[in-house]
């Protein structure tokens, strides 16, 4: 069976992935304008700044949008379809691309409240995934 693709950190994203090793969701924040930036970049897309901190996020948010693949895009995902790929808007205001787990794909909806869950079986770097908060409706 084929192996799943694994994160290949870049110069900009390495601090993000290193934080994931500690089960911390840290998002890049521009020290010049305060913008939260995800996916990490070498320059702030808002003001071009190059100085950042890595802000710890709460791990709480809501599904902004999602798609349910019913055909595997890669052979290693063949046994997992259908699954949910989502954009989650964290309570801090930044959006992240992720998976929604712990729920039937057809039960996911925009606005669903979610909380962070770590996937430690993804290899060297745990993946930040999200699961529904019980009774959490938008």
Characterise the protein shown here.
The mean pLDDT is 94. The chain has 1 helix and 8 strands, in the order αββββββββ. The protein is mainly β. The protein has one helix at residues 14-21, and strands at residues 26-30, 36-37, 52-56, 60-67, 84-90, 95-100, 113-119, 127-132. The strands form 2 sheets. Strands 6-5-4-7-8 form a 5-stranded antiparallel beta sheet, with no helix packed on it. Strands 2-1-3 form a 3-stranded antiparallel beta sheet, covered by helices on one side. It folds into 2 domains: 9-56, no CATH class; 58-138, Beta Barrel (OB fold (Dihydrolipoamide Acetyltransferase, E2P)). It is globular, with a radius of gyration of 16 Å.
In a nutshell, what does this entry contain?
With 138 residues, this protein is mainly beta. It contains 1 helix and 8 strands; from the N terminus they run αββββββββ. The termini are far apart.
Key descriptive features of the protein:
mainly beta; 5-stranded antiparallel β-sheet; OB fold (Dihydrolipoamide Acetyltransferase, E2P); 3-stranded antiparallel β-sheet
CATH topology of the largest domain: OB fold (Dihydrolipoamide Acetyltransferase, E2P)
How many beta strands in the DSSP annotation?
Answer: 8
End-to-end Cα distance = 40 Å
- Which strand-content bin applies to the residues? 25-35%
Using the 3D structure, state the CATH architecture of the largest domain: Beta Barrel
The number of domains: 2
Query: What low-confidence regions span 5 or more consecutive residues with pLDDT below 50?
Result: none
Radius of gyration: 16 Å
Structural class: mainly beta
SSE succession? HEEEEEEEE
Overall geometric form: globular
Which class of the largest domain in CATH terms?
A: Mainly Beta
Instruction: Report the total helices.
Output: 1
Task: Report the biggest beta sheet as strand number plus sense, adding barrel if it closes.
Answer: 5 strands, antiparallel
The averaged pLDDT comes out at 94
What order do the strands of the largest sheet run in, or round the barrel if closed?
Answer: 6-5-4-7-8
Proportion of residues in helical segments: under 10%
